Amino acid sequence: MIRYCAVTTLTLLFSAAVAAQAPAPAGDPAKGREKTRMCEGCHGIEGWRTAYPEVYRVPKLGGQHAAYIAQALHEYKNGNRSHPSMRAIAGSLSDEDIANLAAYYTQGGPQTTTASNK
Fold first, then answer.
1. Mean pLDDT computed over every residue of the chain
2. 79-92 residue pLDDT tens
3. DSSP assignment of 53-112, as one string?
4. Domain-located, residue 18
5. Per the omega criterion (within 30 degrees of 0), is the bond before 84 cis?
6. Does residue 5 lie within any of the structural domains?
7. Less Cβ around it within 10 Å: N or C end of the chain?
8. Residue 49 β-bridge partners
9. Residue 14 resides in a domain
10. What angle do CA 70, 88, 93 make, to 5 degrees?
11. Domain containing residue 29
């Protein structure tokens, strides 16, 4: 059992290191901006919390690394991440859409507002 845990841990660490070194996908930020309407309702409000499927803080996308955003969207799309809303949204995106969104949010994305200003 200990050996299994050690191998699993090393595999996860290696995967994380490879993902961290992955090049950012080439995308067009202007085209990415055109696809943000489905993102802004949750990710465009600083400090926003949602209650579906459980209460959690919605992460800010602006300024994130493009490779991270692209990887996360691909994982939602293929079912490796399990958030019902995100899986449905990512499932509707092409690889080009994902690269464009990643490029847009890496450049800072939209100016966010606070939840109390909405």
1. 79
2. 999 888 899 999 99
3. SS-EEPPP-TT--HHHHHHHHHHHHHTSS--HHHHHHHHT--HHHHHHHHHHHHTT-SPP
4. no
5. no
6. no
7. N
8. 57
9. no
10. 45
11. 24-117
Q: Are 25 and 64 in contact (CB under 8 A)?
A: no
Structure tokens belonging to residue 28: 């067009």
The answer to whether position 13 is within a domain reads no
Residue 29's domain is classified under what CATH number? Answer: 1.10.760.10
Coil, strand or helix at 49: strand
Number of structural domains in the chain: 1
Residue 3 is predicted with a pLDDT of 55
Contacts 24+ apart (CB under 8 A), 13-17: none
Residue 103 has pLDDT above 70, yes or no: yes
> What's the token pair of residue 66?
């493009």
Residue 94 pLDDT more than 90? yes
- Cβ-based neighbour number of residue 52 at 10 Å: 10
Q: Is 43 helix (H, G, I), strand (E, B) or coil?
A: helix
